[in-house]
Amino acid sequence: MSxxxxxxxxxxxxxxxxxxxxxxxxxxxxxxxxxxGMTEAEILxxxxxxxxxxxxxxxxxxxxxxRRILTAQT
Length: 74
Fold this sequence. Notes:
Blueprint: H1 3-6, E1 7-8, E2 19-20, H2 27-35, H3 40-46, H4 52-73
Antiparallel strand pairs: 1-2
Helix pairs in contact: 2-4
């Protein structure tokens, strides 16, 4: 499944921040959990409706956003 199918935005959900489809869990939430030391297994245990693919989509989304920002600066 593509990142765009897993990560969505809706102005009515979490103020339009990118979220994992059909949830209120933002990409930022997942990235902060990982940066704080949580493992994928711990995140999945705390949010059983998420999948490993959802977590990887958050990472891919962040990487693509970083690429776009760097490209725009050059």
